[in-house]
From TrEMBL:
GO BP field: pilus assembly
PANTHER family listed in its UniProt record: OUTER MEMBRANE USHER PROTEIN, SLR0019 PROTEIN
Organism the protein comes from: Terriglobus roseus
Signal peptide bounds: none
InterPro entries recorded: Fimb_usher, FimD_plug_dom, PapC-like_C, PapC-like_C_sf
Ranges where the PapC-like C-terminal domain occurs: 698-760
Segments traversing the membrane: none
Lineage: Bacteria, Pseudomonadati, Acidobacteriota, Terriglobia, Terriglobales
Name assigned to this protein: Outer membrane usher protein
Amino acid sequence: MIRSCHQPWLLGGLLFLMCVFSSRSCFGQDQSLLLEVNVDGRATHKIVEFTQHDDTLLARTEDLRDLGLLIPGSTSEWTDLHKIPLAVWHIDTQAQVLFLSTDGRSLKPSDLTLDNPADPEMHRNVESSAGVTLNYDLLSTLASSNSGVNGQVNVRAFFPRGSISSSWLGYAGGVPGPYGPNAAVRLDTTYQYADVDTMRRYSVGDFVTTGLSWTRPVHLTGLQLRSDFSTRPDLVTFPLPSVRGSAAVPSTINVLADGTQVLSQQVEPGPFQVPQLPVVMGAGNIALTVTNALGQQVTVTQRFYASTAMLAPKLQTFAVEAGLVRLDWGNKSNHYGDAAGSAIYRRGLSPYFTVEGKVEGAQGLVAPGVGGIVRIGSLGTIRASFASSLGDGHNGQQVSLGAERIGRVFSIGAYAMLTRKDYTDIAALNNAPIARSQISGNIGYTTRHYGTFGAAYGDVNQESYYNASLSAQQLAQRNRIVSANYSVQVRHVTVYANEFRSIGGGNNSQGFQGGITFAFGSRVSVDISGTSDGSGQIQVRRPATDVGQWGYGAYVQAGSFNHQFAEVQYRSHLGYIVGGVDQTLGVVTGRVETQGALSLVDRRIFASNEIFDSFAVVDTGSERHVKIFEENRPVGDTGRSGKLLIANVRSFQPNHLSIDPTGIPIDATIENAAQTFRPRDLSGVIVRFKIRAGHSALLHITDSTGIPEPVGSMATLRSTKTAVTVGYDGSVFLQDLEPKNELDVVMPDGQHCTVSFSYKPTPGDIPLLGPFPCKERTH
């Protein structure tokens, strides 16, 4: 009885265990399918493994992503197709094809780019030779009462690991400087090195601290470490607009930014996006046109706003600086205040928000602050900041708020900064007091045919303070100025008018200026203007901007103040010189100004125009008077020395130089007719074009009966082991020949022979030698 009672339970348990260990027998069978996939009517030509269980179809997550599907947040190996949002699928069992339909939002868009951007992590090679450059700007004056010379010089030594520079002001003779007629004042002396891989710059010496829009930079002598995006000229640092779309069939995409085409590209069916579009700063419109093979078009327009004040997402900058405060810069060479330091940080958190912060400190002072910039859609930007200062007698706060919109037609901006009386920063501790309030605003309107209108307002409230440099108490001031301007250009004529008015505070001064400018060609202009005080001016200018150009200038002012001058200019490859005569209130003064640079590099001194950044020295060796091209533009020739200095090439960017091969003797060999180099900033690079005498000849060889050796025979010059092919009529072109030469020839049938001959170079020509009989080798 007991056995019969428990038999049903034993049989049920056995069946349950069979179902557990063999689910296919009880709950349906899993099927492994190999199917070709069709997505939104487009064949992918890919076969993917699927697993089907009842109405569930599973695929490996990586396989789905390879098909261009977006599977966000999935960490499992397999994904159920039912979990793909708004996706519908069915299987054609006979064709073994899976048809998958989506609404487009489940597909990864194809990226359309304007070019192939460099990998930001890629190592970037920059070059720098060793040398010294001296820039000078000297002005000599000669008047009836006195004469003298004043000017500015900058000397810098450069090498692969950076540069050291020092700039000076000098006064000599009757032209008085700040501390007498004969004096020299040091401005800045700095060593700096830019790391192109980390985009950081290291400086030791004199520098100006890095500031934000709501901070005040100061001059320090010490150490500085900061971000430097100038080492990556190809990097766009602010958020750029992007466009998205979808094509049902193969189509052509055209993108226009403010009417200018920036992209035209073919796309396959499916979603696409252009992640970064080059646009002009401010508000604008982007038009996206999709054209299919039948010429049917769909155009979508979207607005954008771009601001260089913001940082692109995940991009960040920083600066850390410390040292002694420079006082009386430009008047004294070595006048220092107390030690101080500062640090700033900025980061783009999204295309719509950039956060920034700062902290600065000195003895008895710590001043932190935080701020941010927000983009309001396509309307404009709003910026705000809050800072405080802590210390003995320096407890205070500073707040600022501003808004800006720059448009193609209408622009407007406003800014206000308010400071409590005890708020202090490093500049305030060193004789540069803080304005208690600053309010400004501007508005601009541009018409298509009637010109541009603008107006601005400024209000600065400055309390009284003690000026340590002048040892005097400065009275409180409040300046409020309203200004307006208008200009219109009709072909080569520009009409303009400007007016300002100072209001309040017992100062109601005002002024007006109006004029007209005529442009004749690309260099000559004539300006006629008048002011509200009864003065009139006429100015004629023709500047000498390029090497080899002459220029001139003349100016006449009459009315309440009389002033006239005339000058002549000339710019050569050695420098720039200006000579003129000036008459002011009956006093006649003659002046001569020279600007240029002297560079010592590659054991030679080069004279040139001023070099503000980098330069290149081209060396063509023993070849003289070789024409040089920069970016396919002629820039000079190497002259009798075989060298040419090219001033102001682009630092950290590829520069392209080439030579004119038609000017090279026919018997010379050019190893590299074009070169690309990327110079370090404030440095010089030697670019060598290897041109050497080829010692070449065209040799004719025959067999012992005078018949030319067969075409295709191989001839090897023993001295260089160089093998060449024998051409028609037994001709062989040989290079690097010596006075005595031997040539081994192997004919197509395997026979060997030898040619012995003498060679004497002919300058500027390739001699024809032979015919020479090829003597068979004897073993």
